[in-house]
Amino acid sequence: MYHLDIGVIVSLESLLEKGTQEIQELGLDTCQVNAWNVDMLTEENGQKLKDIVGDKVKIASVWVGWPGPKVWDFIDGPATLGLVPKEFRFVRMEALKRGAWFAKQLGVSDIVTHVGFIPENPSTTEYRETVIAIRDVASYCKDLGIYFNFETGQETPITLLRTIEDVGLDNLGINLDPANLLLYGKGNPIDAVDMYKELIRGVHVKDGKYPTNGRRLGEETPVGEGLVNFPVLIDKLIKYNYKGPLIIEREITGPQQKEDILKAKDILIGILQKY
């Protein structure tokens, strides 16, 4: 069987409060730490987290959030998400740098974030300023030996590819979220793999559907019930020699979330057993 680590997203708060029990109850030993509260990215919490995970769970990456408003839709999203909105840009750059520093304390090589609705037109001032901001953060990451990964979602694949080219650093990567490409109506995730190729350093195993109106995102679904063709997706990843983790994400809470994560794990194991 072709081996890829299968893991799950867990919040920093949950790990510090509850330890690794929930991850291990799912039969998993890999996670992506979701860190939205910058105030928690301290040396003390870093050491505490290292002691908690020990050799029981591998932290594949740290998903770093940022302060300020965030509206996950097509109307207010462009003005509130990521590094694109000028009003919040500097404080968010500092938050991402803090996240990179925290990852370094943990001995983790990658951070992940949403950059926002990157402008399609590369000739605009907004696009050029966004590229400069990304380059500043990514340069800081490079000095620490950390990869800066764009999570797919609010931009088309070609826009993200062009942005990576324009930033022009060798520590840039992509956290492929195939469902996000569908939810935001930005592209077919299978085709995106052919565009991103070896730039993909992480994958969110999440499923969903295209939007049905111009204001709200498409519907997220359990893996296997949306439009992501995971057997084909993973086949393409393997052909491009992908070695990163498969991180299961289910954006609900409660018992159903656990049930859906276990189902996704079984689907992934079934796919990988064919290789």
General description of the model:
By secondary structure, the protein is α/β, with parallel strands linked by helices. The chain has one domain (6-272): Divalent-metal-dependent TIM barrel enzymes (TIM Barrel). It is built from eleven helices and ten strands. It has helices spanning 12-18, 21-25, 43-53, 77-80, 89-106, 125-144, 157-167, 178-183, 189-196, 230-239, 255-272, and strands at 6-11, 30-35, 58-64, 110-113, 147-151, 172-176, 200-205, 207-208, 220-221, 246-248. The strands form two sheets. It has an eight-stranded parallel barrel with strand order 1-2-3-4-5-6-7-10, surrounded by five helices. It has a two-stranded antiparallel sheet with strand order 8-9. Helix 7 (157-167) links the parallel strand 5 (147-151) and strand 6. The protein is globular.
